[in-house]
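STRUCTURE REQUEST FORM
Protein name: Sigma-70 family RNA polymerase sigma factor
Source organism: Agarivorans aestuarii
Requested output: structure tokens
Priority: standard
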Amino acid sequence: MKCLMKAWDESESLLYNWLLKQTQNQHETEDVMQEVFLKAIRNSERFCSLKDGKSWLFKVTKNQFIDHWRRKIDIEDIDDLEAIDNSLPVMEQLQSCLPRILPKLSSHHRHVIEFCDLNGMAQAQYAKQNGLSLTATKARLRRARIELKQILVTECQVSQNTTGVCHFKRAQ
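Status: completed
Returned output:
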């Protein structure tokens, strides 16, 4: 725990200033810093065995910032959409669009979506089975999700609000 606290003390102000520059918001910066610190505490035993703990803190901070930023992204609502059936959760209803959307994805994007998102395979396992690094797998999955989202918005006329999917056009 001492090595963690030493690395934290040495890095905290640099991490904070970098995050503040990225977020332009003190409260968001503090929220992300808290998440990073909690993650470091949860991994304190492993942390002390790292060669460069400060680099790990910077990497985790960057990843936490990216995750925080992704959660904030809002999609503009699309006008003139059909009302949804309130008896089923929207995401269950949206699954009816997937069979006609998946074939429209590029093959490598469809492959990673099917294995990781639809079949629940761990990204590390997917990376190993496909001869990829974990970083490459995460990037591929991110790009695949972006492509899937673009196709869903276009083909199924999906719109979102701050709580998630709110409308879509049913399969015809």
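Reviewer notes: The two ends are 59 Å apart (CA to CA). The beta strands are 159-161, 164-167.
Form closed.
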